[in-house]
Write a structure and sequence with these properties.
heterotrimer, A mainly alpha, B alpha+beta, C mainly alpha, A: mainly alpha, 12 helices, 0% strand, C: mainly alpha, Cytochrome-c3 Hydrogenase, chain B, 2 domains, three-stranded antiparallel beta sheet, 16 helices
């Protein structure tokens, strides 16, 4: 049958025979993850380009207009055209910049978000490396973006970029707490951190985690959009405000890396949300008879969550910076703590500590 | 109590956010209202003040304009310069007519002031961009337009009979 | 002149915690709307200490030019004074000239004028709603507002031929009669549009983020409003009844039934609510005017040359979309006015911007500016 597991087994078998031909069979343990990481890298790069197109089309159709439709069929090559434009742009740099941090910051922003994709299971067995501390790893990795933003703001030698960097860093740090707290009930219920194991638990119990933990799902999605500096939390890069944000002094490819890093953060957060709350590669309820491979369901859920995050951007106004912090600390954190308490009581009393 | 108001605010806020999301999602699935210019050119209304043309009478092989200067006097920006000459039969005819479209504001006073049906707006010609500013000073040859038969002006009717009542 | 201004601004020294104040230019080119308005903002961290608007980037000396144009030619310039609601300014000039010369337009012309001015009010408020929401951060209502506005402009184009600078309302009447298909199309548009107002309200009015950004922000108390010359929907948001259509009814506004929309809080949200309610009232006014439209002449008998009487002067005001639009004309016996002056609502509303933003954050400047509905060509003329 055509499932993800079968595909993975066939491909791995082919790969091992390839090693055998070249004579590198002894290095199998090292080469396998490297090849998987390279495949994942290419997939994500193409997927992000598709996402940029999707954002423009989604925003356009929400606003009763057609998005890009001239460059390529349905405008699909529009992102390629934009990427080419960004690469051939003049590299404008401030003279008094701090050279090494200036070049490192976009690299950190890009690489750190990328690393989160290592543990996301597209199907049973279709992960780069199913770490048994998967969730902890992802939460730790997403904190790297703060370093990138502060470095970018500082090295630009521009007081507005610095202020934008500070605001953004404060925002990201304060929204990490509800992000983690909303995942804690899941960890309490399943007792595992590995993402593959969480999906297996959902398969076993028969329903997805979004049903008992809907509040946690909403808090997670909200914190994820705040982590990615997207509207309605995009004060650091707001276009109609006076301060340009941490990426003011970046142009060309470096700006493209920040831009793409933001989209990859959205992908990682949506992937975690669809794995943990929406059942990962499990089929939709009542549609299991279709016998589609698991990654089709996973991609569908991923796109659904990404659509939701995009709809947030184009529907809601922007929060002012102090209101943003108020919302994070005074609304999201208390509610997520109450959620943890209720889940704890439920586990102790109802599920008898299972 | 403060705590109940806190939760009520949260729930009401969530509900209103969902109302907003439902509106944008509804429009996501509706047809777009974009006109795909230049492949799709919708016709402009008949009274559109698009481009001013001098009417050329094919039968009499001359312009209708008699150089009475009413249009030049009516123009707020003094865009029109014209000259006329009296021919043998004692009738005035126009010799040169220059309209500077770079200062024209398309207010329509010249067309209204003309009592000889010599100037008109042609609604189909609205793509009037040029590459050199000098091309905007058009003379009577550039503005020549022969009126098609189906657009001949109707005779004047009293306004009371022409204007329909209410609905 | 602007260099002088920047150097005149005294930046105070260290505050309690040793932070410095700095002066920032919200330059003439805005990413969002409002045209070429320049604001010099003195900031202390994120808090605004003072806002100084610098005007004049769109000054075209319309009032001086009108001294060299005849009264009918002046109408073409009034289109450009406030190009977002051009019919209102056309009407203001036409009424002023008619009162100066002792003319009166016939009944059908007045009903038609009312219909078009109220349609123009709809179009102007839709554009305002889009710009206001865009400043706050919601970019979608702008597109929705423009979509409905396109339909209104189609109605205008069907009648007078232009979509922005109409030159339709003339001294003594209107330019040309409406086509027979105008009335059913207008009614169809109103039926289509009225549920949309509820949709826009659903998108914005009780949205918690929008409420947080606009409730309590930029409060104009009634005394502050009257002392600083605020007019129009901005003052009605503070509870003061100042609608010229009710105070000094012109055309046939005393014969149609409509409510004056008032709110009591005086913050940005109240001004937003006032304008959304005005959308509904305008729809009702247009329906009543369409019902009472009767055949008749559309222009009175005018003398061949319109001359303002020697020694005559008139100040005539109407309620445009932004507030009180007044025109002051002085006649001197010639076909051209001796002096013309436009009293524009946006210009007098600008004065209160400084007091409203002191002590608030930078993001609130955009909210307040958007809620005052400033149109820069009206400010600068």
């Amino acid at each position: 049958m055509f499932t993800g597991e079968n595909i993975v087994q066939t491909v791995v078998g082919l790969l091992h025979s390839l090693y055998g031909m070249v004579g590198l069979s002894s290095f199998q343990g090292i080469l396998d993850p490297i090849v998987a990481a390279v495949v994942m890298f290419h997939f994500i790069a193409v997927f992000v380009m598709f996402l940029v197109w999707m954002e423009r089309k989604v925003s356009a159709h929400m606003q009763s207009r057609i998005g890009p439709n001239r460059v390529g069929v349905f405008g699909l090559l529009q992102t390629l055209a934009d990427a080419i434009k960004l690469t051939i742009k003049e590299d404008v740099k401030p003279v008094k910049r701090d050279k090494i941090p200036y070049y490192i910051a976009p690299i950190i922003a890009f690489v750190a978000t990328f690393m989160g994709m290592v543990v996301i299971p597209f199907d049973k067995g279709m992960v780069v490396q199913d770490l048994n501390i998967g969730l902890l790893y992802i939460i730790a990795i997403t904190s790297f973006t703060v370093i990138a933003i502060l470095t970018a703001g500082w090295s630009s030698n521009n007081k507005f970029a610095l202020l934008g960097g500070f605001r953004s860093a404060a925002q990201i740090v304060s929204y990490e707490v509800p992000l983690v707290l909303s995942l804690v009930p899941i960890i309490m219920i399943t007792g595992k951190l590995s993402l593959g194991a969480i999906v297996a638990y959902q398969q076993q119990q028969g329903y997805w985690f979004v049903i008992p933990q809907a509040i946690a799902f909403l808090i997670f999605i909200t914190s994820a959009t705040a982590e990615a500096n997207r509207a309605p939390f995009d004060i650091p890069e707001a276009e109609s405000e006076l301060i340009g944000g941490f990426h003011t002094e970046y142009s060309g490819v470096k700006f493209a890396m920040f831009f793409l890093g933001e989209y990859i953060a959205v992908v990682v957060s949506s992937a975690v949300a669809s794995t943990v709350f929406l059942g990962g590669w499990l089929p939709f309820p009542f549609m299991g008879f279709l016998h589609l491979p698991g990654f089709v369901w996973f991609m569908a859920k991923l796109l659904l969550v990404i659509y939701l995050i995009m709809a947030f951007r184009w529907t809601f106004p922007r929060l002012r910076v102090d209101q943003l912090m108020d919302f994070g600390w005074k609304v999201l954190i208390p509610i997520s703590i109450i959620n943890i308490l209720v889940t704890g009581f439920w586990i102790l009393l109802v599920a008898k500590g299972a | 109590m403060g705590i109940f108001r806190y939760f009520k605010n949260v729930v009401m806020g969530l509900y209103n956010l969902c109302v907003g999301l439902s509106i944008t999602t509804k429009y996501f699935f509706k047809k777009t209202t974009t006109q795909q210019y230049p492949e799709e050119r919708l016709p402009l209304p008949e009274r559109s003040r698009s481009m001013i043309k001098l009417i050329y009478d094919g039968e009499k092989d001359q312009f209708n304009c008699v150089a009475c200067m009413m249009c030049a006097k009516a123009c707020p920006n003094s865009c029109i310069k014209l000259e006329g000459v009296r021919d043998e039969g004692g009738k005035r005819r126009m010799t040169t007519f220059k309209l500077d479209f770079s200062t024209c504001i398309f207010c329509g006073y010249c067309v209204e002031a003309c009592g000889f049906d010599a100037l008109t707006f042609v609604s189909e010609e609205y793509e009037n961009s040029v590459y050199k500013r000098g091309s905007l000073l058009q003379d009577e040859n550039a503005m020549k337009w022969a009126r098609p038969a189906h657009l001949a002006p109707k005779t004047e009717e009293p306004a009371a009979a022409a204007a329909p009542a209410g609905a | 002149m602007t260099d002088l201004l920047l150097s005149q601004i005294k930046v105070s020294g260290e505050s309690q915690f040793g932070t410095d104040e700095y002066v920032v230019n919200l330059g003439p080119q805005h990413p969002a709307t409002h045209g070429v308005l320049r604001l010099i903002v003195k900031l202390d961290g994120e808090t605004v200490k003072e806002t100084i608007p610098v005007l004049g980037y769109l000054h075209r000396s319309i009032e001086k030019i009108c001294e060299n144009r005849t009264y009918p030619q002046g109408i073409t310039y009034t289109d450009r004074v406030d190009y977002v609601s051009a019919m209102s300014v056309n009407l203001a000039w036409a009424l002023a000239a008619e009162r100066l010369m002792g003319l009166e337009a016939p009944a059908r012309a007045n009903w038609l004028r009312m219909i078009f001015v109220e349609l123009q009010r709809l179009a102007s408020h839709l554009l305002w709603m889009g710009a206001f929401a865009g400043d706050i951060g919601a970019l979608t209502p702008f597109l929705y507002g423009l979509r409905e506005r396109e339909r209104i402009l189609d109605l205008f184009e069907m009648t007078c031929g232009q979509r922005l600078t109409y030159n339709y309302i003339r001294i003594g009447g209107v330019m040309i009669d409406i086509l027979p298909e105008f009335v059913p199309k207008c009614r169809a548009f109103l039926d289509y549009f009225e549920p949309k107002i509820d949709e826009y309200e659903g998108l914005l009015t009780y949205n918690p983020i929008f409420l947080q950004r606009t409730k309590g922000v930029g409060v104009i108390t009634p005394e502050m409003g009257i002392n600083n010359g605020v007019c129009g929907p901005s003052l009605r948001g503070s509870g003061i009844s100042c609608d010229v259509r009710k105070q000094q009814p012109y055309l046939y506004y005393d014969q149609v039934k409509f409510k004056e929309c008032l709110e009591t809080d005086g913050d940005c949200w109240s001004r937003y609510k006032v304008r959304m309610n005005e959308l509904r009232e305008s729809v009702s006014i247009i329906r009543q005017c369409l019902d009472r439209l009767e055949p008749g002449p559309i222009e009175t008998k005018l003398p061949p040359v319109l001359k303002g009487p020697l020694g005559g002067e008139i100040y005539s005001r109407i309620e445009s979309s932004r507030g009180e639009m007044g025109i002051y004309l002085v006649g001197d016996g010639t076909p051209k006015p001796y002096k013309s002056k436009f009293r524009c609502a946006s210009f007098s509303n600008t004065y209160v911007l400084d007091q409203l933003t002191r002590g608030w954050k930078v993001a609130d400047i955009m909210a307040v500016l958007g809620s005052l509905d400033m149109i820069v060509p009206e400010v600068d003329r």
